[in-house]
Structures are given as structure tokens and as C-alpha cells.
From TrEMBL:
GO terms under biological process: hydrogen peroxide catabolic process; response to hydrogen peroxide
E.C. numbers: 1.11.1.-
PANTHER family (UniProt xref): CATALASE (PTHR11465:SF9)
SUPFAM superfamilies the UniProt entry points to: Heme-dependent catalase-like
Example of a GO cellular component annotation carried by this entry: cytoplasm
Catalytic site positions: H50
Species of the source: Mycobacterium asiaticum
Stretches assigned to coiled coil: none
Transmembrane segment boundaries: none
Name of the molecule in the record: Catalase-related peroxidase
Catalytic EC class: oxidoreductase
Stated family: Belongs to the catalase family.
Length: 335
């Protein structure tokens, strides 16, 4: 519980710092959270996005290679505990699992010096939007029509015409079909950050988690929660493992736009092994009450000129404070 108290303390600080990430007369975290509720409805006690989820616990074993570009203690040789959360994108906590729904993995690394590193990753090769304003506009365009249960095709087409960067990103995403399940998905941070080593040298970095154990084929889909059910069964049989890869950017690589991939020839560093040893029903004391704020960074890691992480911090904090004041409903996914 002391660890959870520490998470909450950071969340409040993040909100205080990030609450004004856009002009007060324009887009704010409050309006952003309202927009999620407008699209998905208000579900007491749940996150406004990635509402359906499952907590996880494990470790990260750093091999020390990441220390060449970053002085953060979490990247020195050694093992630290990790709190995690698997999730599906969207604000419906009881949605049916579908293979093409965005999958998320949030992680909070807890080194002994208390300098946490939090990251919220998804299984997409690039992000769909380059700015908070674009994400906000697309969220409304994707709202299902009450008569059809699907977004208005014309509204979405109009959005794509105004945002060619999103249209280009969607083409890349469609060329990367999802894996069978959570356990064999690759997860990507997508946003660029700045890493600084002990010598003071700074580089741009994006990171990914690549699965060590690939699935033999497509998972069956007999039930509403089949992706989570398979994750629970797999975690009961064996640890779930991913390699943490740090991709180092070069001059000219876009650091401000997560819709644009970096060239595949960029240098990568295998920084260590993430192992998930258990998954749990969301409850007090695990990831249920953790805010995976991407701006919670240890010394040696810093934001770049990408506008999304600071915006996400404000919205995540607003979602956190709202659900903290609400009655907690039982999770759809139970172990």
C-alpha cells in the first residue's frame, strides 16, 4: 500500500504541472476527459481510456547496455520490480475482445532509489495522431452513430482529409496485423524522449518491447473476454517475457511527430528482459490505482519536443482524480 501511496503522490504532482498544457481558452485536460465520456459514456471508477484491463507484476532485468546512452539507475545492471497493466483501447470496461482493438501495456519500474520510470505502450507501429488537437478531433469523428453502432463514414473521411498525417499512419498500421494475443504482442512507446548518459551526451530515443516467446498461431475467439482469458491461461503456465529495445535517433529523425516512423536502419540497444510473473484482477494495491503517466521519468530521461506526452499527463491525471472519487465497480476481467 505504501507503493500505491507513492504512485498517487506523483499523480497529483503530474496534474499540477501538466494541467495547463494548452491555452485555457482552448483544449484542456477537463475537456479531453469530457470528450471520452461523451463518446463512451461515464463508467464509475474506470479509466476514461483503456478502461478494460488486467493488472500484472514482474521484474525488469537490465543487462547494463542501456547505460551507454542513459544514466538512469533502472538501466544499470540489475533487477527491479515492475507493476504493469494489460488493456484494450477505448472507454468501455465491458467491451468484447476483438483482434484489431488497440492493446496496451503500462509499466511502472520501481528501482530502489525511488526514481520511477513509467511508460504506456501500445501494439501499434506508429501513433495515429501527431498533436493533442488531432486526437481530440478524431475521437469525436469516431463516435458511433446511435442508429448503426458505427462511426459516420463521411465524418471520418472529412477528418482524414484534414489530417493527412493520420491517413498515412493508418496505412502503416494496416500493414502490421496484430498478433494472436497479449503475450506475443510487441509494444511500442512511439513518442521520442531524450536520454542523457553519465558523460552528458544526449540522444533521441524511442523504445519497444519485443516478445521472446511467439505464439504458434491465431488464438481462438469463443468468448467475450477471449484475449484476456488466453493471457490468464498463458501466465499460469509460464512467465511472459519481452526484450526492451532502445532505438537511437539520428539528425533529421522526427522527434515531434509520433505518426512518422524512424528508418529501420537506426541503431538499437537490447537493454534487458521484462518478465511478467503474475496477472491479477484489478484491485486496491495493484495497477488499478496506478497512473501510467509518461512524464514520470528518472534522471537521465527527459521529454522531447513531441507534444503528446505532456498532454497525456494532464488527461491521465484528470481521469485519475475523477475515478478516485467514484464508486469502484467490479472489473470485467477476473483471474
Amino acid at each position: 500500500m505504501s507503493a500505491v501511496a507513492g504512485f498517487a503522490a506523483v499523480d497529483v504532482g503530474a496534474f499540477a504541472c501538466a494541467g495547463a498544457w494548452l491555452r485555457p481558452d482552448a483544449l484542456t485536460p477537463e475537456r479531453f476527459a469530457d470528450r471520452f465520456e461523451q463518446v463512451y459514456g461515464r463508467h464509475q471508477g474506470f479509466r476514461r481510456n483503456h478502461a478494460k484491463g488486467l493488472s500484472a507484476a514482474g521484474t525488469f532485468e537490465s543487462n547494463g547496455a542501456g547505460a551507454a546512452i542513459c544514466r538512469a539507475s533502472v538501466l544499470r545492471s540489475g533487477t527491479v520490480p515492475v507493476v504493469g497493466r494489460f488493456s484494450l483501447g477505448g472507454g468501455l470496461p465491458d467491451q468484447s475482445d476483438k483482434p484489431d482493438t488497440v492493446r496496451g501495456l503500462g509499466l511502472a519500474f520501481q528501482p530502489p532509489d525511488g526514481k520511477q520510470w513509467r511508460t504506456a505502450m501500445v501494439n501499434l507501429p506508429v501513433f495515429t495522431d501527431s498533436t493533442p488537437e488531432g486526437f481530440f478531433e478524431r475521437l469525436l469523428a469516431s463516435k458511433p452513430n446511435p442508429d448503426t453502432g458505427k462511426p459516420d463514414p463521411q465524418r471520418m473521411a472529412d477528418f482524414m482529409e484534414r489530417h493527412p498525417e493520420t491517413a498515412a499512419a493508418m496505412k502503416i498500421i494496416k500493414q502490421t496485423p496484430p498478433s494472436a494475443g497479449f503475450a506475443d504482442s510487441a509494444y511500442h512507446g512511439l513518442n521520442a524522449f531524450r536520454f542523457t548518459n553519465e558523460a552528458g551526451a544526449t540522444v533521441a530515443v524511442r523504445w519497444s518491447l519485443l516478445p521472446v516467446d511467439a505464439s504458434a498461431g491465431q488464438a481462438p475467439s469463443p468468448g467475450k473476454d477471449y484475449l484476456f482469458d488466453e493471457l490468464i491461461r498463458t501466465a499460469a503456465r509460464r512467465p511472459l517475457r519481452w526484450r526492451l529495445l532502445l532505438t537511437v535517433g539520428e539528425s533529421g529523425d522526427p522527434t515531434h511527430d509520433a505518426t512518422k516512423p524512424w528508418p529501420p536502419s537506426r541503431r538499437t540497444i537490447d537493454a534487458g528482459l521484462l518478465t511478467i510473473t503474475a496477472v491479477q484482477t484489478e484491485a486496491p494495491g495493484n495497477a488499478r490505482d496506478v497512473n501510467f503517466d509518461p512524464t514520470v521519468l528518472p534522471d537521465g530521461m527527459a521529454l522531447s519536443d513531441d507534444p503528446l506526452p505532456a498532454a497525456r499527463a494532464g488527461v491521465y491525471a484528470r481521469s485519475f482524480t475523477r475515478r478516485a472519487e467514484e464508486r469502484k465497480s467490479p472489473s470485467e476481467v477476473r483471474v
